[in-house]
Design a protein that fits this description.
The structure is a single chain. By secondary structure, this protein is an alpha+beta fold. The protein has one domain (2-111): Alpha-Beta Plaits (2-Layer Sandwich). It contains two helices and six strands; from the N terminus they run βαββββαβ. It has helices spanning 13-22, 70-81, and strands spanning 2-8, 29-35, 42-46, 49-53, 56-65, 89-95. The relative contact order is 0.31. The protein binds adenosine-5'-triphosphate and magnesium ion.
Amino acid sequence: MKKIEAIIRPEKLDAVRHALEKSGCPGIMITEIEGHGKQKGVVQQWRGEKYKVELLPKIKIETVVADGQLAGVLKVIIDNARTGDIGDGKIFVSGIDDAVRIRTGESGEGAL
Ligand SMILES: Nc1ncnc2c1ncn2[C@@H]1O[C@H](COP(=O)(O)OP(=O)(O)OP(=O)(O)O)[C@@H](O)[C@H]1O
Ligand SMILES: [Mg+2]
């Protein structure tokens, strides 16, 4: 199993969510976050003074998928989140040892 953490633009959430639901993604969690990447936020000019905006609002989508679903789910996220401009976001993938559905006690991929 793999955990996908995708940091995306807030305005892309609906498109990514609906595409994930259509593609058979077993479940998702959404968190509103603030962060910055390589550009360290943006610098805004206001009445001659420079204000550094260091953190920008983003959405974190987390989903745990079977190994065989990984490539497809990554493609769905990228296809629906990308504008081609800086700040489109980032995806982190990590391994998951186990999962348990509390109601039934099922574990492993069967619990997803
Ligand atoms: N190395 C990182 N570790 C943790 N979070 C990150 C990392 N890089 C980016 N993020 C998160 O992803 C969000 C979006 O990052 P962003 O798309 O600006 O990445 P980037 O590397 O600067 O790429 P780009 O040049 O396309 O802007 C950040 O606000 C931050 O929350
Ligand atoms: Mg950036």
